[in-house]
Design goal:
The protein is α/β, with parallel strands linked by helices. Helix content is 56%, strand content 8%. The chain folds into three domains: 3-86, Up-down Bundle (Four Helix Bundle (Hemerythrin (Met), subunit A)); 101-290, Rossmann fold (3-Layer(aba) Sandwich), CATH 3.40.50; 299-448, Signal recognition particle, SRP54 subunit, M-domain (434 Repressor (Amino-terminal Domain)). Helix 5 (70-86) packs across helix 12 (286-293), helix 8 runs parallel beside helix 9 (198-210) and helix 17 packs across helix 19.
């Protein structure tokens, strides 16, 4: 998502930063290009106009005109206003003053509510919170079974509802169980419709009257763009939504919903779905999204991904090996495998400041390169992994046949491994800041070897 928008904005900014002086004429020209880029990204027209008006006021003031680098200052203003448009800060799940915080997910059919219920529960469980899931969609075939299976997969309790029960009765009985079980969050999955109708709204209002709901989160398919924003506005007018979750943010969408929905409704985006797996739910940080849109990367997000997927004990073991200069190809392979768990290389590179805006739109990294490296190292003996200098011509020939690669691939791997080993040795000697060193190791570790070629 945002690839096309990022490409167009970067093209506009490049023209602007090449100018030594900014004036009303070239700022107006740049704003026109920004406007077209946002409208093509399916951002709401009124939101675009308000956004450009705010930028123009700041851009024509001393903030830019008096700057030593006006082009860069202009980009900073665009970044600031993007962040403001999307809500300025992250808003996690609200906490009720009641013992149980009730969260109800609403939205149209097919937006991914049921899976998102399980994703929220999975995140809460990792944070040490107890959750209780409530299947209140009695209309969609197998919706109840789906949530009960997901609950079992992540190891959280789920109310045993049936399609013969009324949604309001399901929620009422589930709430009594949740209070008795001392859970932190009760998360309700409600029925969707192909379009908004009175029956759906009445059902949701009835549930609101029965239990003290703290959060009503509208789940929107980001692929639907402005349609999602329009539907969300109607839901908000009827039942007072407290926040949004955008699903399918990893898809080939233009991003208009993410940029418009908060400005139109006044309610924040709380989470975004970044894939189909249960773990693929992330908090929505407006500043990080703005940085990615402008091609500035997301360094904090990259470090958090690394910390989530890298084994802490292995990191500490790696530190010791680096200090002793005993880092082996086996360690190298282990690091590669952990990097592959973090997600696609295209997404990871896009999070690195300075690299994201150098990747052409719709381009993707060659994931097969990592598979090839893994195959080569798997074909080595333990002695060869510990001591690559043993790899003479005949051994390399054996390895190439065993891994389905060329001898030239093995030579390239060995050369890059030695370069990476030297670089990581330098990082290990940088000083006392172990946290920074670990973050650097995680980001710049073995997986960084010429993945971009």
């Amino acid at each position: 998502m945002f690839e096309a928008l990022t490409s167009k904005l970067n093209s506009t900014f490049k023209k602007l930063t090449n100018k030594g002086v900014l004036n009303e004429t070239n700022i107006a020209s740049s704003l026109k290009e920004v406007k077209m880029a946002l409208l093509e990204a399916d951002v709401n027209y009124r939101v675009v106009n308000a956004f450009l008006k705010a930028i123009k006021i700041r851009a024509l003031g001393k903030e830019v005109m008096g700057s030593l680098s006006p082009g860069q200052q202009f980009i900073k203003i665009v970044n600031d206003e993007l962040v403001k448009m999307m809500g300025s800060e992250n808003h996690g799940l609200a906490q009720s003053s009641e013992q149980v915080t009730i969260v109800m997910l609403v939205g149209l059919q097919g937006c991914g509510k049921t899976t998102t219920v399980a994703k929220i529960a999975n995140r809460a469980k990792k944070e040490g919170k107890k959750t209780y899931l409530v299947p209140a969609d009695v209309y969609r075939p197998a919706a109840i079974d789906q949530l009960q299976m997901l609950a079992k997969d992540i190891g959280v309790p789920c109310f045993e509802s049936t399609s013969e029960m009324k949604p309001a009765d399901i929620v009422s009985k589930a709430y009594k169980t949740a209070k008795a079980s001392l859970v932190n969050y009760m998360i309700i999955d409600t029925a969707g419709r192909l379009q908004i109708d009175d029956t759906l709204m009445n059902e949701l209002e009835e549930i609101k009257e029965i239990v003290p709901i703290k959060e009503i989160l509208f789940v929107a398919d980001a692929m639907t763009g402005q349609d999602a924003v329009n539907v969300a506005k109607t839901f908000h007018e009827k039942i007072k939504i407290t926040g949004f979750i955008l699903t399918k943010m990893d898809g080939d969408a233009r991003g208009g919903a993410a940029l418009s929905i908060r400005a139109i409704t006044g309610q924040p985006i709380k989470f975004i779905g970044t894939g189909e797996k249960i773990k693929d739910l992330e908090p929505f940080y407006p500043d990080r999204i703005a940085s990615k849109i402008l091609g500035m990367g997301d360094l904090v997000g990259l470090i958090e991904k690394a910390q989530e997927h890298f084994d802490q004990s292995k990191i500490e073991s790696l530190e010791e090996k680096l200090k002793r200069n005993s880092f082996t190809l086996g360690d190298f392979q282990d690091q590669l495998r952990q990097i592959r768990k973090m997600g696609s290389l295209t997404d990871l590179v896009g999070m690195i400041p300075g690299l994201g805006n150098k990747i052409p739109a719709n381009a993707s990294m060659d994931e097969s390169a990592l598979i090839k490296i893994d195959a080569i190292i798997s074909s080595l003996t333990n002695k060869e992994r510990d001591n690559p200098t043993l790899l003479n011509g005949s051994r390399k020939l054996r390895i190439s046949k065993g891994s389905g690669t060329q001898v030239s691939d093995i030579n390239r791997l060995l050369k890059q491994f030695m370069q990476m080993k030297k670089m990581m040795k330098k990082f290990s000697n940088m000083g006392q800041d172990k946290k920074s060193m670990r973050a650097m190791q995680q980001m710049m570790g073995p997986g960084n070897m010429n993945m971009f070629q």
